[in-house]
Write a structure and sequence with these properties.
Elements (H helix, E strand, L loop, with lengths): L2 H11 L31 E5 L5 E8 L26 H13 L5 E5 L6 H18 L5 E5 L6 H10 L2 E3 L7 H7 L5 H30 L18 E7 L6 H15 L3 E6 L17 H16 L4 H5 L15 H8 L6 E2 L5 H4 L7 H10 L7 H6 L4 H4 L3 E2 L7 H5 L3 H7 L10
Parallel strand pairs: 2-3, 3-4, 4-5, 5-6, 6-7, 8-9
Antiparallel strand pairs: 1-2
Helix pairs in contact: 2-3, 3-4, 4-6, 7-8
């Protein structure tokens, strides 16, 4: 099988992995005349976005789609009839370097099916990252999917060469994992996540101490060891809609992962029925908007000070499911109307962030602008506020919202009607 055909198969097989964001690494470049690639600036190429809005291209492939595991939900499971392919270590290295030199990519996202054993597969992934870094002085971004059952030494080596590591939690519950992926062990997954966190924390502390030594006045320059381990942290992914887990359960697990393992990101991947799927899996995919709502709720957890209970337990009765018709913040607001209206000239940042239509950037603009004068309603538009969305929930100089809409049952319908509906391709 030629290289182009392998690339076509293994790039397509990698499309189900959503956790390929490339932000958060340390700064590396090759402007000094040595090395290849940097972290500052077709087939198998995916696009991610850095915090500053830059679009970053990654070569996103599997080392192989052969797998000894038979996870019911996976297109590459052992019993699947898909066409198989496998790259060699040298082929992945050459593809990465050639794509980079042609300005197609800025980094590599590499995952793999399990072949022979977890340790053997992990060793292949580590060899690719090591060869790129040590032999070719590649300074671009590398994200490796690690294998929980692999040895601690291999996982530690992976973190020395990769910018980010990720271990998939797979499914929201232990029971579901046992039912659909019996070869995988939830204990091993959590153990590996804890191990990664300890190494990442050790690396951060090492860099912090090293910075203090270098910047200390009147101190002779001493060579200190530098330990850099997965500087962009770790991430994970779970499949949504393959089991009966509620959104409350999913968000509770995500919140735990953020707190326990300092996860940089939890990715949600809507279950997609695959050819010759197992009979114990749903025949139909969940609404794609559910994945979108979970990402919105995840954002509220991480950056807006909301709790899981506030987000998921106030909607759709006691089902623990998010409202698919409106976004989670708006849904919370409509169930907590006694919290409003908020006076934009006196409210704290935390209060402003709970107003539908006001995000972190807009809240900062409001707080900055009101230092110079009290804000009128017309001033908010200059801050980037969607007047239509915030009008029922805020007060400004010379204007208070009509109390009737806040008490009206039609307020939800008002917002629902103003939301664009995604059309379906098929009936």
């Amino acid at each position: 099988m030629n290289l182009q055909r392998k690339l076509s198969i293994l790039a397509d097989a990698a499309k189900y992995d959503a956790s390929c964001a490339s932000s958060g690494s340390i700064k590396r470049d090759s402007r000094g005349g040595t090395g290849v690639g940097s972290t500052t600036s077709g087939m198998g190429i995916c696009h991610s976005y850095a915090p500053d809005g830059r679009c970053i291209s990654l070569l996103k492939i599997l080392l192989t789609n052969f797998c000894i595991f038979d996870c019911s939900y996976c297109i590459n499971r052992a019993s699947s009839q898909v066409q198989r392919a496998r790259f060699s270590v040298e082929e992945v290295v050459d593809l990465t370097l050639n794509f980079y030199k042609r300005n197609y990519i800025e980094g590599l996202f590499l995952s793999s099916g399990i072949i022979q054993s977890s340790d053997y597969t992990m060793e292949q992934l580590v060899n690719i990252a090591r060869t790129l870094r040590k032999t070719h002085d590649f300074r671009g971004y590398i994200h490796l999917k690690t294998i929980p059952d692999a040895s601690e030494d291999l996982i530690r080596q992976a973190g020395l060469y990769a910018d980010r590591l990720s271990i998939n939690i797979e499914l929201p519950s232990k029971q579901s994992l046992k039912r659909y992926a019996p070869e995988k062990n939830i204990g091993s997954i959590h153990h590996s996540m804890q191990e990664l966190r300890e190494h990442i924390d050790e690396s951060k502390e090492n860099r912090k101490q090293r910075k203090k030594v270098v910047s200390a006045p009147n101190r002779k320059k001493t060579k200190t060891s530098r330990f850099v381990f997965s500087p962009a942290g770790q991430s994970t992914q779970m499949i949504i809609g393959a089991d009966e887990s509620s959104d409350n359960k999913i968000l509770t697990l995500s919140n735990y992962l953020y707190g326990k393992y300092q996860m940089r990101r939890v990715y949600y991947s809507a279950f997609s029925p695959i050819p010759d799927t197992a009979t114990n899996l749903p025949a139909k995919a969940p609404p794609l908007v559910r994945e979108h709502r979970l990402y919105q709720a995840d954002w509220l957890l991480r950056f807006y000070g909301f709790s899981v209970e506030e987000i998921s337990n106030t909607h759709n009765g006691d089902t623990g499911m998010l409202d698919l018709d409106i976004d989670p913040k708006l849904a919370w607001a409509l169930h907590n109307l006694d919290f409003f209206p908020i006076n934009v000239n006196r409210a704290t940042r935390e209060m402003l962030l709970r107003v539908p239509g006001i995000g972190a950037i807009v809240a900062s603009r409001i707080i900055h602008s009101r230092q110079f004068h009290n804000l009128r309603f017309s001033d908010l538009k200059k801050c980037g506020v969607s007047i239509k969305k915030v009008a029922p929930f805020i007060e400004a100089l010379g204007r208070s919202p009509n109390s009737v809409p806040l008490e009206s049952n039609g307020l939800r319908n008002y917002f629902k009607a103003s939301t664009s509906t995604q059309l379906c391709l098929f009936d």
